[in-house]
Structure formats: structure tokens, C-alpha cells
Amino acid sequence: MVGINVSDIDFYENRMKVLGKGNKERMIYLNSACIDALRAYLAVRGENPKAEGEAALFLSKRCTRISKRRVQQIVENALAAAGLDGKGITTHKLRHTAATLMYQYGDADVLTLKELLGHASISTTEIYTHLNNENVRNAIESNPLAKVKSKN
User: Fold this and answer.
1) What is the pLDDT of residues 23-41, one digit of tens each?
2) Comparing C-alpha atoms, which of 75, 54, 76, 74 is closest to residue 65?
3) CB 56 within 8 A of CB 27
């Protein structure tokens, strides 16, 4: 988040350029709720004359690029407001939870998650795919071959 510039957002294609670990560049797609929120934020951000000419998407009160620590503070404040402070929730755990929910309920497969999360290896992504026994049983039962009767 802290490295994103306004110019990295492509509102026409609903996607954004992000820089991952090792300065690896990739494009991620944004849903309409995210695009709407970005447009609303930029409308407010643009009203500040000090923001003019600043490339960073997210700015501090001094109209400079926000820091990683500031992002953590924003998340901590939101967790506190929701009564969830002191429960060990971190930005990384929120990322992990979002990926797990997309996998379990959003019909995102492991390869899609790998791309979305920017992982180099599928084995890294598989950590996010906690399969419980019910998921495995449902997958086996939904296999079309499960309905085939043997001729014995």
C-alpha cells in the first residue's frame, strides 16, 4: 500500500500495478467497491492543495507518503474501534484471512490465489488453503465419477 502511486491505478481496466517482494511488479484487479472507494478517496485527497504533485496514493497529514507503521496504526485503531484489539490480529493475519475466505467461499482456486497474492511458489499459497475434512468429502462427492455405478 505504501508504495502505490496514483498513476498505478487504471480506472478503465479496474486494475492496479503493485510492487511485491524483490521489487517484482504485477497487476491486480480491483472490484467495483474498491474502485468506488478509490474515486471517493481521490476526490477528498485532491481537495488538499499540498497534495498536488505528490505521486503517492495514500498520504499522511503532512501530505507525504504514509509509512508501513502508519498503515499498522490505522488497522490497530480500526480493530480497537471494533472491539478486537489485543487479540493478536495483524495486517498479515488479515491478508491470510482474506485469502482463506476467497478460497473457501469465493470459488478462488489455488492458482488464482497464487497470482493475487504474488507468490512465486504454489507451496507458499497452499498455506492459505486450510482444507477441512468436510471440504475434502464434498469435493469427492461432487466428482461426476462418484455417481457411476460399477458393473460388478
Assistant:
1) 888 888 999 999 999 999 9
2) 54
3) no
